Structures are given as C-alpha cells and as structure tokens.
Amino acid sequence: MGEVASGRLAEAREALAAVHGPPFEVAVEGLGAFPDEQRPRVLWAGVSRGADRLAELSRVLGDALKAKEFVLEDRAFSAHVTLARFRTPIAGLADRVEADRKTGWGTFSAGRVGLFESRLATGGARHVLIQEAPL
Fold first, then answer.
1. What is the 8-class DSSP label of residue 7?
2. Contact present, 26 and 107 (Cβ < 8 Å)
3. Quick check: 89 pLDDT over 80?
4. Alpha helix ranges (H) inside 28-67
5. Does pLDDT of 57 surpass 80?
6. Residue partners of 6: CB distance under 8 A and separation at least 6
7. Which of 46, 114, 44, 34 lies closest to 75, judged by CA?
8. pTM of the complete model
C-alpha cells in the first residue's frame, strides 16, 4: 500500500474485512532474490501450495482498497516469505540460492490476515501489527 495518512487508517481497516474464507495450508519452498541473485536486495522463500489462494486474497483486498480510492503499486502479486533485506551485496548468496532453489522449508496453516505498519529506523524497518482478522 505504501504510505497511508493516519486519517485513512479506518478505511484500510474496513477494506481488510473484505478478505475472508476458510483457513488453508501454505507450503514454503525454495529461495530467490529480488531483483535477482547477482544484485540481491531481498532474500525470499517461495510459496508453492497456497499461492493461488494468497493471490486471490491479494486481489480481493486490492479491489476493496481501490474502491476506497487508495492508490496501489502497479505490479504483479508474487507469493513469498521475505527472509532478509540487504543494503550491500552478500558474497556467495547466488550460490546459496541456486543450491536451495527447490528445498522444502515446511508448511503452515493460514487462518488470519493482518494490517501492519512499517516503522523505519536506522537499524531497518520494524513491522507492527495494527489489526488482525480471521479469514
């Protein structure tokens, strides 16, 4: 969503209520990096099982936010778990990503959706849950 004015927080919370459905299982598998392994800024683990359901929830939430005239980023949804962010390149990361491209990391049951605030500091961002709702 990017930065949201504090006066619009109630609208964002209302949009979150549009996201519902039964809990589902998510399988975490593989490693990757954004924008790529040679210039990593973000290390992520992929989502295999449950990716379609996460994409659908993202679409529903996006539609609810757009209906409230929020401006959203114009990029495709990519189901993943962010593991780390880097300020400078990490030697050998491309080899590690390649070695674990298909490694299965486990599964979990997704049964809630949350709205987080990113609080930026010199040591990096801290993400604080401000609302949570069951699916």
1. G
2. yes
3. no
4. 51-67
5. yes
6. none
7. 34
8. 0.86
Per domain, the residue ranges of the chain are 6-134
- Residue 72's φ and ψ, nearest 5 degrees, are -110, 155
pLDDT at 92 over 90: no
Residue 29: which region, alpha, beta or left (left: phi > 0; alpha: psi -120 to 50)? beta
More confident residue, 36 or 24: 24
Across 99-125, average pLDDT: 92
Half-sphere exposure of 128 (CA within 13 A, CB side): 7
On whether the 6-134 domain is CATH 3.40.50.720, my answer is no
- Give residue 107's Cα distance to chain centre: 16
What is the DSSP code (8-state) at residue 39? Answer: S
Buried b (16+ CB within 10 A) or exposed e, 54-66: beebeebbbebbe
Q: Report residue 63's pLDDT band, with 50, 70 and 90 as the boundaries.
A: very high
- Contact (Cβ atoms closer than 8 angstroms) between residue 63 and residue 9: no
